[in-house]
Amino acid sequence: MGKKIAVLVTDMVEDSEYTEPVKAYKEAGHEIVNIEKEKGKTVKGKHGDAVITIDESIDNAKVENYDALLIPGGFSPDILRADDRFVQFVKDFMDSKKPVFAICHGPQLLITAKALEGKTATGYKSIRVDMEYAGAHYKDEEVVVSDNQLVTSRTPDDIPAFNRESLKLLQ
After folding, report:
1. Is 47 known to be catalytic?
2. In the 8-state DSSP scheme, what is residue 95?
3. 30 included as an active-site residue
4. Beta bridge partners of 138
5. Do 21 and 101 contact (CB within 8 A), yes or no?
6. Which pLDDT tens digit goes with each residue over 8-28?
7. Which residues pair with 7 in a beta bridge?
8. Which candidate, 5, 29, 75, 166, has a CA 20 to 30 Å from the CA of 99?
9. Any idea what DSSP says for residue 149?
10. Confidence (pLDDT) at 1
11. Residue of 30, 47, 105, 137 marked catalytic
């Protein structure tokens, strides 16, 4: 049976870090729900390849309605982490012990949510020190799985491994 996956996304997302995991999850039978500030809004990737319709407002999104969370990278996570509603959603998701998938700059939302303490994780090299200050044990590897809950990767080159490990946690 397919799982329902929340995706926190806004303009300037890294296109392939959204499109490729979403494609893999849908092909595996999972449902995707794009969440931003305004339902019905259209957001665009930083390269213009991803055009995303928002399915749900963050004001109506509840962690208990989802089985997993995807946080694609690009500038999107940095924009979203300035809004406490997204930060709280991520914190609540981590606290719920449900699967969370964050790639590239995606862990910025986890940093702001103070949800990386004691976790083994990776992310884009420019946020490594931030992740370490947040209490993460940083590993420079294509994919890192922590506590059978958190899947992180560094760059678009890591997407095949990221998708593989994410899909394992969705089984």
Report:
1. no
2. H
3. no
4. 121
5. yes
6. 999 999 999 999 999 999 999
7. 34, 70
8. 75
9. T
10. 74
11. 105
Question: Which residues partner with 145 through β-bridges?
Answer: 151
Instruction: Tell me which amino acid residue 47 is.
Output: H
CA 36, 150, 40 angle in degrees (round to 5)?
A: 15
Give yes or no for residue 125 having a pLDDT over 80: yes
Residue 98 to residue 93: CA distance in whole angstroms: 6
CB 100 within 8 A of CB 110: yes
pLDDT 10s digits, 80-98: 999 999 999 999 999 999 9
Contact 87, 109 (CB under 8 A): yes
**Cα(148)–Cα(38) distance, integer angstroms:** 32
Domains and CATH numbers, the chain: 4-170 (3.40.50.880)
- Torsion, Cα 6 11 15 17, to 10 degrees, reads -40
Q: Does the predicted model carry a pTM greater than 0.85?
A: yes
Percent of the chain with pLDDT over 90: 99
**Residue with structure tokens 């998708």?**
163
